[in-house]
Write a structure and sequence with these properties.
Order of helices and strands: HHHHHEEHEHEEHEEEHEHH
Low-confidence stretches: none
Helix content: 40-55%
Number of helices: 11
Largest sheet: 7 strands, mixed
Radius of gyration: 42 Å
Number of strands: 9
Shape: elongated
Length: 339
């Protein structure tokens, strides 16, 4: 029996040495160490041995089992290492080859110019504030001196959710909310998306972006308004930019004005871009109407202020000489890649 156990050891060693796969090794383990394996079958015959021989044969069998298990573990490690070396040889990569280029996206031109506008006004001491896009009739119209029967509402026709809830037509409601929560001095700009029931064409969209500004303090005058806006425009378009203010009417400011810049295409001579006028309208502005101040609990005899509002898309169009507003929303990478 001792000789038979030694033979099992030798046979297992030879089989493992010639094995070439993990599957073969598992078959060898079952053949020699399994429940019906050769070593197990010999051990089942130990009942025929004398009391003196059993412990000797049992110890030898355990030693042979341990050696075979050790060799199995070692052979598995060798095969795994050989497989890894083979894969590294066959699947190696040339790291010196150029990689596949993945095109990187760019910031949308509207966001680029919006960031510039924010930086300009932050540099003049303004803060940035936001408000809800879904507004009440009070904040969007009534608090801004536009009662329900005011004819100026016709030019700001919007999308109504109910008789009293609507999509805001301007970011002016943000100014009302700021003045309700913060007593003067106030110096803020309110950028955001607004909605109007406009037909889509080269210069109009039912969804667009607006930037409005508000300053309220003691002793604020029209001169402060003009100086602030002139600095802004020169920072945005260049120091050579020429501006003019024209009288206008807005229900929430008095006096009111529109600010134009001299056409950068024809230098005021008149061309197709400025429709022969030599000037391009850029924004509306004015001194905050006393009634608007009263609506938010600010004494118009003690405080005054100015406000302005501009369409961001129009600002971007002027900045990059873009003729059609629809290009901003068509997601054409040929257009967007230019910026």
């Amino acid at each position: 029996m001792k000789q038979a156990i030694e033979n099992i050891r030798n046979l297992a060693h030879e089989a493992l040495e010639s094995s070439q796969s993990l599957k073969e090794i598992d078959e060898i383990r079952v053949r020699f160490l399994g429940k019906k394996g050769e070593l197990t079958n010999i051990l089942k015959q130990m009942g025929s041995l004398s009391a003196e021989e059993r412990p000797v044969i049992g110890q030898l069998a355990n030693e042979i089992r341990a050696k075979i298990e050790t060799e199995i573990t070692s052979r598995i490690s060798q095969l795994k290492e050989q497989e890894l070396e083979r894969r590294l040889r066959e699947e190696r990569l040339d790291v010196t080859l150029p990689s596949t280029r993945h095109p990187l996206g760019k910031q949308h031109p509207i966001n680029q110019v919006l960031d510039e506008v924010k930086d300009i006004f932050l540099g003049m001491g303004f803060s940035i504030t936001e408000g809800p896009e879904v507004e009440t009739d009070y904040y969007n119209f009534e608090a801004l001196n536009l009662p329900k029967d005011h004819p100026a509402r016709d030019t700001q026709d919007t999308f109504y959710i109910s008789d009293n809830i609507l999509l805001r037509t301007q970011t002016s409601p943000v100014q009302i909310r700021v003045m309700e929560q913060q007593k003067p001095p106030v110096r803020v700009i309110a950028p955001g998306r607004v909605f109007r029931s406009d037909a889509v064409d080269a210069t109009h969209s039912p969804i667009f972006h607006q930037i409005e500004g508000l300053v309220v303090d003691k002793g604020v005058t029209m001169a402060d308004l003009k100086g602030t806006l002139e600095i802004f425009v020169k920072e945005l378009y260049g120091p050579e930019t020429v501006v003019r203010f024209r009288p206008h009417h807005f229900p929430f400011t008095e006096p009111s004005a529109e600010m134009d810049i001299m056409c950068f295409e024809c230098q005021g001579k008149g061309c197709s871009l400025c429709k022969g006028e030599g000037w391009i309208e850029i924004l509306g502005c004015g001194m905050v109407h006393p009634k608007v101040l009263q609506n938010v609990g600010i004494d118009p005899d003690e405080y005054s202020g100015f406000a302005f509002g501009m369409g961001l898309e129009r600002i971007v169009m002027r900045r990059y000489n873009i003729k059609d507003l629809r290009l901003f929303y068509e997601n054409d990478v040929r257009f967007l890649g230019q910026f």
